[in-house]
Design a protein that fits this description.
Keywords: Coiled coil, mRNA processing, mRNA splicing, Nucleus, Spliceosome. Residues 153-180 form a coiled coil. This is Pre-mRNA-splicing factor SPF27. One of its GO terms (cellular component) is catalytic step 2 spliceosome. The protein is mainly alpha-helical and 201 residues long. The protein has helices spanning 36-54, 58-65, 79-89, 110-200. It is elongated, with a radius of gyration of 35 Å. The two termini are 34 Å apart.
């Protein structure tokens, strides 16, 4: 059907005042010039029905469609909301308290000092264990991670291929349906013209 259009600037959808705001394909593709008035009448009828149903003018309806989506923020005490509150209030992020990881140098309670030292020893021991585990299993863990990424990539590629196939099939059916409809409209219009000629003669 596009071969019947001589100039791309004559596309019907570009004659719409707000065509640049539409981010999806128009349902009506480019049609021959002899069917433009039919399509325009259908579109105008649909626009009238939409305006009557909404009870608004065209500009008011467009403004309502372009309103930002409402977002009701309800704090519930979760960590995310607390962090959002901190950012909105301009407060600084709480820094890590490294003092708890340093030994007590001046404390009169000997038991408290010993408990702190034991805690630091446990932290150090855990750190050494983590380093040993990482050194022993790093290659195997990384290879497993790469395998999981490869499987994820293959799965996403298969999903994309399936979606592309479905999209192409949908576009083909849509195009064939529009071509068939255009042919029917052209045939009906031709019969109408022939009928008018017979009435004249």
């Amino acid at each position: 059907m596009n071969s019947n259009v001589e100039n791309v600037n004559d596309l019907l959808y570009k004659r719409n005042q707000y065509h640049h705001l539409v981010d999806s394909l128009p349902f009506v593709d480019t049609v021959p010039a002899d069917l433009e008035h039919v399509i325009k009448d259908l579109v105008n009828d649909e626009m009238k029905l939409i305006l009557e149903e909404s009870g608004l003018s065209e500009s008011q309806l467009l403004d309502r469609y372009l309103d930002p989506l409402p977002f009701n923020f309800t704090p519930n005490g979760c960590l995310y909301n607390k962090e959002i509150d901190r950012i909105n209030n301009g407060a600084e992020m709480e820094k890590l308290d490294f003092s708890r990881y340093s030994p007590i140098s001046s404390h009169k309670d000997f038991k408290t000092k010993m408990n702190r030292i034991k805690m630091l020893m446990e932290y150090s021991h855990d750190s050494l264990i983590n380093l040993e585990l990482m050194d022993r299993y790093k290659e195997g863990s990384w290879l497993k991670h790469l395998d999981s990424l490869t499987l994820l990539k293959l799965s996403m590629e298969k999903r994309k291929k399936d979606l592309d196939s479905k999209l192409n099939e949908l576009n083909k059916r849509r195009k064939l349906s529009q071509i068939d409809t255009a042919n029917q409209l052209r045939s009906i219009n031709q019969e109408y013209e022939e009928y008018k000629l017979r009435l004249v003669h």
